[in-house]
Amino acid sequence: MMKIIQSYLFKKFPEIIYGFSTKVGLNRKEPYYFNMSYSVGDKKEIVEKNRKEFFKELGLNSFSIAYQKQIHSDIVKIVDKPGYTGISDALITHVSGIGLAISSADCAAIFIYDPKNKIIAAVHSGWKGTHKKILEKTLHLMFEHFHSEPKNLFAYIAPSISQKNYEVKEDVASLFDSKYLKKINGRIFLDIKKANQDILLENGIPAEQIEISELCSFEEKDLLHSYRRDGKFSGRALGIIAMREI
């Protein structure tokens, strides 16, 4: 049994392949469960098998995925072939059959589709990426390079950590508008989903074309990976978006 989180927004488009992996798959057990990352201490052969079966469920394979080394940057890359793409935290492609991958265990993962110009994008945006506005930089590259228009874009913010579980220190809090912060008994909590939703709205994407998962990675301990919750024993999810030929 494998549980994969879907987007109802993307289901409107038969040409879009989308899936976000969970802890549940191949009966994997603690500490890493159904983990997609080679860098957390899990055995390489187990991760390879996990990825292979996850991609197969989506109708893809290991050789059709574009990967990046995520470093919480504002680097956005346009890719036209699968495989390792180097250091970045956002990928854009116009090529069908390439799955854009985002690794996540609390950070916001945002996926975008332009059905008019047939462009997809995948963005990794933790507090650093959100502060650096990597999502906005991705959108602007879509506007400038591919002539995408905001009115034609559809966006999905995948499961990530909710505000009530995302405590930050003053140095991080000072980087964000107060509307994204909540102070309780001297503690400060950041709303990473709302901050990225507002970037989408401020750049002209219609509200009804934005979907935000209500799932909190921290709270869904039986379903989702969370670094904040599990620390060094946390696995990682992969979110994948791709276009298929119709």
The number of helical runs is 6
> Between the first and last Cα atoms, what is the distance in angstroms?
28 Å
The topology string of helices and strands comes to EEHEEEEEEEHHEEHEEHEHE
| Spatial arrangement of strands, main beta sheet | 1-2-15-7-3-5
Query: How many runs of DSSP E, i.e. beta strands?
Result: 15
Portion in strands: 25-35%
What is the mean predicted local confidence, pLDDT? 97
- Largest sheet, if any? 6 strands, mixed
Structural class call reads alpha/beta
Shape, per Cα inertia axes = globular
Point out poorly predicted stretches: none
Radius of gyration: 17 Å
Q: Helix content range of the residues, please?
A: 10-25%
Question: How would you portray this structure in words?
Answer:
There is one protein chain. A hairpin with a 2-residue loop joins strand 12 and strand 13. The chain is of the alpha/beta class. The chain contains 6 helices and 15 strands.
State the main characteristics.
alpha/beta, globular, 246 residues, 15 strands, 30% strand, six-stranded mixed sheet
Brief summary:
By secondary structure, the protein is α/β, with parallel strands linked by helices.
Question: What's the SSE blueprint?
Answer:
Blueprint: E1 2-5, E2 16-25, H1 44-58, E3 65-69, E4 76-78, E5 83-87, E6 90-93, E7 99-104, E8 108-114, E9 119-125, H2 127-131, H3 134-146, E10 154-157, E11 167-168, H4 170-173, E12 181-184, E13 187-190, H5 192-202, E14 210-212, H6 227-230, E15 237-243
Parallel strand pairs: 3-5, 3-7, 4-6, 10-14
Antiparallel strand pairs: 1-2, 2-15, 6-9, 7-15, 8-9, 8-10, 11-13, 12-13
